[in-house]
Design a protein that fits this description.
Strand order of the largest sheet: 2-1-14-6-7
Largest sheet: 5 strands, mixed
Number of strands: 31
Helix content: 10-25%
Structural class: alpha+beta
Shape: elongated
Oligomer: single chain
Length: 627
């Protein structure tokens, strides 16, 4: 018997033989079907419908849902694709169905706004793909990948040694959703005779280079696409997307301070909506989170209070604040007629007498004015103090008389083009400083502690925050008004809140940042101290808006920094947490964790709502008690 020797000329052929044996055994055992590519499972049910979901800033909306029959009635494309799978082996795909980008465009989606996609399959596979990979980068069909396999594929480096040869005949190709398709390894070309719907819907996409291994991205059995982006302006092209239309006020309608803005409109596919009004600086001045919808319509009134600043205001109504599904409308606010403009001065009172060296607090309310100049003139007709009232509403300022201040009548003079005549009020400076016991009890120097304060204010006796208001007054951080009131439910400005925080936490004066609208302001030094301590910043490098009401989320952020609280590693569970500013979310979670502040009984926090003097006092005292 003749002995036969088996010799192989190269290691490459040996590897090829072993590869062939491996494929044969794998297929024989039924572990893999050589004509398909593995997903999470090797088999599943074809999709019977396709749902498109828009995820707009974390809030998901179902835009549309289609049966396969409806998809087949849309414009169809036929395309060929090449790919390398994980074996590795060259794969060709023939596909008929929908161009992906055109389909998404028809849903009203702003393609430029998309960051990424999630594809959901019936075998429970969820595939995340970026827009850059799927839609932006150039991709191709390489018809030579099988023909060049034996000659140019390097199994060690997993590339074609002659890329130019493998790239011959490459044609650009865009991604699609295949309703019917066929896919197989080592084919001479895409098999158009074997199209079927067993993998419906299949995602198909091109290669960037001929050796790119992307077959695992050809997701099969897709029944849902989640798009992370926004609708085009005026979007809502699909039949399922919510639609919101504002009919009143009309674009750029004009109102005067003191008037009421009637807001009306219609909605589709929503049971409730969120309404937000923002001023010209983008600050929310009015928010309704659960605007009731009746018979497909809504109606709301917004009164332009005396402290409303003239300018452009934007109404936004929709599923959630900032959603691209919202409808917007701009209206204008002008100052009230001169006859309606007025000034009320609370302190100092007419003919009140103060001492040389005393600090004089000037506070009051401006109605129907966009700006005014305040000046204090001494008996020698010299200006000793000036400031600007830059909006309607409460204002305050303070200055300190010199120890050598002239005795006599001092005139507080407020001038504005909106006033029929200048407003004046007189207070007096005595010749010698009287005993401190004659002062208003709410301005006496406080004791060093915050326990058992002796404070009498006529409007807090039955108030929920009475104890903490008294403690904060006793600490010397805040005062009552000369008429013996505290006005616990009035709003508190950013300047007033910062001043109270600086005093309450005994922060040393520091040379921090000055803003264009804090220079010369009565709270300039307190604001500078707070910025130096890193407690607060402005809206930008120039604007602080000291006389704006402080909001609940701003209050939370300031207190967390002032009290040096360790940030909480938890998420907010409030139903309106999506409306919180990104910079405030951690602070709100932290301050709630430490029980310095709480939400409302309806599980909302109302981050943009204006804080009251009582709330400010309670939050500050609660934070101090943590020490």
């Amino acid at each position: 018997m003749q002995k036969r020797e088996w010799r192989f000329k190269s290691g490459k052929k040996i590897k090829s033989v072993w590869l062939a044996i491996f494929i044969f055994l794998f297929c024989f055992c039924g572990i893999i079907n050589s004509t398909t590519v593995m997903a999470k499972t090797d088999s599943s049910d074809p999709a019977t419908s396709l749902t498109v979901v828009l995820n707009d800033n974390g809030v998901a909306y179902e835009l549309a849902s289609y049966t396969i029959e409806q998809l087949e009635s849309m414009s169809q494309v036929e395309r060929e694709y090449s790919s390398i799978d994980r074996m590795p082996a060259p794969v060709f795909t023939a596909a008929k169905g929908l161009d992906l980008e055109s389909f998404l465009n028809n849903q009203g989606i702003d393609i430029d706004s998309v960051s990424y996609f999630r594809f959901y399959a019936t075998d429970n596979l969820v595939k995340k793909m970026s827009k850059d990979m799927l839609l932006d980068q150039p991709a191709y069909y390489f018809p030579k990948i099988v023909e060049c396999w034996d000659s140019y594929w390097d199994e060690n480096s997993q590339i074609y040694t002659d890329v130019a040869k493998a790239s011959e005949g490459a044609t650009p190709v865009k991604p699609m959703l295949a309703i019917t398709s066929s896919q197989g390894r080592f084919l001479s070309g895409p098999d158009w005779n074997s199209l079927d719907g067993s993998t419906c819907l299949r995602l198909c996409l091109g290669q960037v280079t001929p050796e790119e291994c992307i077959t695992m991205n050809f997701v099969r059995w897709i029944y849902k696409i989640e798009v992370f982006g926004k609708l085009r302006s005026g979007g809502g092209a699909s039949s399922v997307a919510p639609r919101v239309t504002l009919s009143e006020p009309t674009a750029n309608a004009s109102y005067q301070v003191g008037e009421t803005v009637q807001i009306e409109g219609t909605v589709e596919k929503l049971s409730t909506a969120t309404l937000t009004i923002t001023d010209q600086d983008g600050h929310a001045v009015y928010t309704v989170f659960d605007l009731p919808i009746q018979d497909g319509g809504f109606s709301e009134e917004f009164t332009l209070e005396a402290d409303t600043i003239p300018g452009s205001y934007t109404i936004e109504v929709g599923p959630a604040p900032g959603s691209s599904l919202n409808s917007k409308q701009v209206f204008q606010v002008t100052a009230a007629p001169a006859s309606a403009a007025s000034i009320t001065l609370n302190t100092p009172q007419a003919d009140q007498t103060v001492q040389p060296g005393d600090k004089v607090e000037i506070s009051g309310n401006a109605r129907g004015l966009s700006s005014a100049k305040l000046e204090v003139i001494d008996p020698a007709k010299q200006s000793v103090y000036s400031s600007t009232i830059n909006k309607s509403g409460d204002f305050n300022g303070e200055f300190t008389l010199g120890s050598d201040a002239l005795p006599g009548d001092y005139i507080i003079k407020i001038t504005s083009s909106g006033l029929k005549q200048d407003y004046t009020q007189v207070f007096k400076v005595a010749r010698t400083k009287s005993d401190a016991s004659t002062k208003n009890p709410t301005e006496n120097k406080p004791e060093s502690g915050i326990q058992s304060p002796a404070v009498t204010l006529k409007d807090i006796s039955n108030h929920w925050a009475a104890d903490r208001i008294k403690q904060l007054i006793a600490r010397g951080a805040i005062k009552g008004y000369p008429d013996g009131s505290f006005k616990p439910d009035s709003t508190i400005t950013r300047a007033e809140f910062i001043t109270t925080v600086v005093k309450a936490f005994n922060l040393s004066k520091a040379n921090g940042k000055s803003f264009s609208d804090t220079t010369g302001h009565w709270a300039q030094d307190y604001i500078a101290t707070a910025t130096a301590e890193g407690i607060v910043g402005g809206y930008n490098d120039k604007i602080f808006s000291p006389d704006d009401p402080v909001t609940r989320e701003q209050m939370a952020a300031i207190i967390v920094k002032a009290a040096r609280l360790t940030p909480a590693a938890v998420e907010n569970s409030f139903s309106d947490s999506s409306s919180m500013a990104a910079w405030a979310r951690e602070a709100v979670a932290t301050i709630v964790k430490y029980q310095v502040i709480k939400g409302y009984p309806d599980n909302t926090f109302k981050p943009g709502s204006k804080a009251t003097r009582a709330e400010a006092a309670a939050v500050i005292v609660n934070a101090l008690n943590l020490k």
